[in-house]
Amino acid sequence: MSSEQTPTTPEITGPRPRRLTYAALLAALEGLALVVGGVWILVLGFTGHPDDRQQAVTGGITLVVLALLPLLAARGLLALRSWARGPAVITQLMALPVAYNLLQADSMAIPGGIALAVVAVASLVLLINPETTRALGIRGPGNAGGTQK
After folding, report:
1. Which of 20, 27, 37, 68 is deepest in the core (most CB within 10 A)?
2. CA distance linking residue 137 with residue 130, whole number of Å
3. DSSP 115-134
4. Are 75 and 88 in contact (CB under 8 A)?
5. What are the tens digits of pLDDT across the range 68-107?
6. Within a 10 A sphere around the Cβ of 42, how many other Cβ atoms?
7. Is 101 helix (H, G, I), strand (E, B) or coil?
């Protein structure tokens, strides 16, 4: 092997595919929503009268930490890093059961569940799109090594 090996990041001629940009924006939106929700729960935990202050603080911190996954994935997708698709897909798969639970509620959570389900499904479609896969330099099974004839 020579020192001039193929770079690990794909070289795209032209602009970043719009589908990839949209997927990154949706992941960033989810991350920002988690941060806002976590900060809101923290503020209510400290200033309001929660049933359990420790539980409110723990829940708020957990949401803020969980926000790192989609935010890092969004940054990686915008930078065309192939590793970023995994965390982005995991985020969407985790969002689907949350959306389902919100849809089961008899409250104002139902519109949130609808929005989350739409964003998660749309993101999954964008992330598994062949154009996105090519842009990230992800090869399918059996295409990992060598050239095929």
Report:
1. 27
2. 10
3. HHHHHHHHHHHHHH-HHHHH
4. no
5. 999 999 999 999 999 999 999 999 999 999 999 999 988 8
6. 18
7. helix
